């Protein structure tokens, strides 16, 4: 039987339409949560980190942690495994965009409504006022557009080129929309064939190679065709032949790969430099200090050592970033205007106990040291600090985070 994927706009009555299709066909519904859960179990990453890949907002640490790219790689493998399990499945949600467009027995559906109808549904089903509903819709549309751009390279998430059927639910109605989807399942173009089965196997192999690259800190666009894997590098590389050789060795070690070809893509000549993720080095470090020149210089010195660091200049900004982006290690000054370092430390360890905090101050006393260590600081260092000592302390704090994770 064919597979159905459904992508939709918020408040487009997709849940009701999908339920009616499932009831009419006997298909099993697979949601984003199930794909996220499987991806998390395969990768060892948390479900929260996997699910954040669906959000438009990218972490300030992502250039060094590659967390979103790793999450997408594991989501692809989770989806590929599901496609291999059985055919009579309906995938609904963000993950529906993951399978390659050339798998013919997947009926690709988009459910969308005009804004007036979406606002009316938001009010009737959730009781939302128009202003609040608009805010939710715009945020969800932004997430969906960023996701489709990331995994499909298309800026318009509702583009007809992405789907076999685009259903205007506001015009067709819930019953009419469900009937149209069920009717299209009988189309000869979406029936399972040996060729379409082989394309699923290609998807599985490409996904396995993608996760093998991600596990070693690499990322590249991966395609597979009957055992031949093509790797496309879309970032500028200073030593291209060396990188191609390394990627080819990793891909070639994956079971089922017969041949590996490496090439460069359209993004290769841009300024975005290819970076391999070194999992032994800190990649999510937050520097908090109101001495701008000092902290910017410190950030640059850490980056020269391949450690990823973001900078904020006051305690309030630090607390906001911790809430939104979850750094793993924080280097924190004590004397700052507004919320001081001790209060930041207190709140961080209370609300985000897994974040390790290194105090780095030029004005602290022995009493301050005792207070900070009592609140759970990982270390207490004085300015000016030897960069080697700081690097060693950072690595030790990062190691503790990894071991606790």
TrEMBL record:
GO terms for biological process: phosphorelay signal transduction system. It comes from the Bacteria. Residues 284-398 form the Response regulatory domain. InterPro entries: Bact_response_regulator, CheY-like_superfamily, P-loop_NTPase, Sig_transdc_resp-reg_receiver. Keywords: Phosphoprotein, Two-component regulatory system. It holds the Pfam family Response_reg. Signal peptide: none annotated. The modification 4-aspartylphosphate is found at residue 333. This is Response regulator.
């Amino acid at each position: 039987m064919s597979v159905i994927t459904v992508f939709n706009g918020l408040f487009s009555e997709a849940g009701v339409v999908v339920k009616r299709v499932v009831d009419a066909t006997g298909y099993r519904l697979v949601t984003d949560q199930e794909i996220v859960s499987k991806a998390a179990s395969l990768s060892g990453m948390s479900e929260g980190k996997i699910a954040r890949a669906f959000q438009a907002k990218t972490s300030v640490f992502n250039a060094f942690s590659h967390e979103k790219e790793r999450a997408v790689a594991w989501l692809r493998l989770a989806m590929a495994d599901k496609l291999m399990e059985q055919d009579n499945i309906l995938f609904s949600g963000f993950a529906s965009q993951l399978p390659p467009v050339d798998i013919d027995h997947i009926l690709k559906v988009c459910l969308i409504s005009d804004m007036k109808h979406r606002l009316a549904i938001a009010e009737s089903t959730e009781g939302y006022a128009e202003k609040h509903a608009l805010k939710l819709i715009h945020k969800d549309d932004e997430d969906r557009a960023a996701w489709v751009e990331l995994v499909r390279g298309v800026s318009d998430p509702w583009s007809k080129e992405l789907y076999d059927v685009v259903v205007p639910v506001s015009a067709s109605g819930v019953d009419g929309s469900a009937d149209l989807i069920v009717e299209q399942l009988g189309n000869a173009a979406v029936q399972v064939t040996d060729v379409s089965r082989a394309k699923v196997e290609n998807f599985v192999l490409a996904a396995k190679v993608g996760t093998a690259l991600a596990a070693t800190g690499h990322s590249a666009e991966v395609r597979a065709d009957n055992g031949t894997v093509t790797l496309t590098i879309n970032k500028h590389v200073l030593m291209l032949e060396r990188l191609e050789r390394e990627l080819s060795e990793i891909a070639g070690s994956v079971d089922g790969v017969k041949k590996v070809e490496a090439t460069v893509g359209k993004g290769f000549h841009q300024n975005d430099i290819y970076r391999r993720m070194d999992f032994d080095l800190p990649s999510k470090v937050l520097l908090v200090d109101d001495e701008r020149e000092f902290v910017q210089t410190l950030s640059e010195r850490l980056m020269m050592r391949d450690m990823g660091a973001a900078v904020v200049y006051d305690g309030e900004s630090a607390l906001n970033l911790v809430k939104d982006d979850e750094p793993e290690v924080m280097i924190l000054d004590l004397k700052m205007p507004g919320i001081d370092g001790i209060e930041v430390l207190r709140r961080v360890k209370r609300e985000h106990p897994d974040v390790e905090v290194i105090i780095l101050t030029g004005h602290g006393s022995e009493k301050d040291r005792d207070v900070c260590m009592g609140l759970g600081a990982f270390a207490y260092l004085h300015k000016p600090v030897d960069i080697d000592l700081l690097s060693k302390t950072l690595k030790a704090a990062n190691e503790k985070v990894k071991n606790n994770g």
